[in-house]
Amino acid sequence: MTTSIERVQYSDRVPIRSIILRPDGGSGLAGQQARVGGWVKTGRKADKDAFAFLELNDGSCASNLQIIVEADRGDLGQLVLTGTCLQVDGVLKLPPDGKKQKVELQVQKVIHVGVVDASKYPLPKTRLPLELLRDYVHLRARTNAMGAVARIRDELSYATKRFFHESGFRYVNTPNITTSDCEGAGEMFQVTTLISEAEKLEKNLIKNPPPSEVDVESAKLIIKQRGNDVAQLKSAKASKQEIGAAVAELQKSKENVLKMEERSKLQPGIPQKDGKIDYSQDFFARQAFLTVSGQLQLESYACALSTVYTFGPTFRAEKSHTSRHLAEFWMVEPEMAFAELEHDMDCAEDYVKFMCQWLLDHCMEDMEFFADKIDKSCIDRITMSAKTPFARITYTEAVELLTEAVKNGKKFENHVEWGIDLASEHERYLTEVKFQKPVIVYNYPKEIKAFYMRLNDDSKTVAAMDVLVPKVGELIGGSQREERYDVILSRMKEMGLPIEPYEWYLDLRRYGTVKHCGFGLGFERMVQFATGLDNIKDCMPFPRSAGRADL
Fold it and tell me: Against a cut of 0.85, is the pTM above it?
């Protein structure tokens, strides 16, 4: 019985994955015809240029397929160059004994060649530092590391949707443009057309200067003359046609004056009112921003559909150049009605465990690459996270453990005391040293958390929780939301937040309020946690940060 080869659904090629990721490494396919396509990783001529060995990769997996091309099939000098794109027909065959690969492809026909200028192609055979690859963001997906990141992101995205779908959540699209600040930090990108409109107006005024007062007065005299003409025609009992024509001319003159008066008031620059920018003339007739979170809008759907989630891009205008910051990043945010903090922590833990197990079941080849090249402990880390119950401690207990560590000689750059926002070094100490596994810290001081988090009975802490993991620190931040109208209103006033932009949010407490909770997971941090990459900019296909927005 002949074993069939899986083909790409909308192409006639065979993905390299379906050949070499078989349990037998592809040896069971020997003798079968296959059309493959991909990019040359390495190539070399052999036997006095009679043929060439090429390592071909199509991105479907980390491993390459070795293909053998004889000199009469194509220009070997071009085919062996790293970066060359090839599509070929050939027959799979067993390699000589002792070879690493289990199968190779003997090329019978070269279908396509995408040539490369080797003197200009920026990706050599040798491994480049990830930092340097960020200068070639449009090509770096061809490297082993970034290809593996892309596949892991894809699998984690699918795992996310599967987890929430199977858990009864509905997916909701929240807006990228918002008029409210969920975090209250003010570090938001503003969305406005005032600047571009001002630039267009300035160019227009230079090309077509506005009318002067003399021009407007002259136009008004024409109106007066046209009015006299109409009166004279009526007095002379002229025909309706003549009078109608004169009235039409009068109306045109009036419209012209109105346009001239409006244009004479135009001033270059951004519109002002009472010494401030007049946002009523902006595109949305008010200030608008790129969202930092879809949580607030998502709560409105949780208060109707009960269990919902969103998964999309968020933005923060924080001018930081550290390895932990991005200006654009993706967030997974569930919201659950009729649920409290304990349910929130349970959901967060189950979700992280589900993703870790998914990687072990579906991404082992890529995980082995990262364990070999980037972080030897990455597989052990996600295995432990998938199998081990997370520790749960209050914020107060966390501070006590950190204080005890300091007394025992541990040195932190950031001072430890009750009331501080735990720094990354504190979080990593708890997860990597003290507990050696993920830790959920809950019940934080209200002063360091957002206005929407439910005030606890002690009036000092809020029902907030963070999931901390080794390597990264905070992976998830969440809370039970404040459902009591009087309490949340008091909190907003206490924090100096304007009430008007949040009136709709307060309506959720005015009309059929319910206990509810939710959290946000930074998707790039999950990728970083899984892969062990040091810089979060390498966990994003097209990273945006202060000073960088390539492509």
Answer: yes
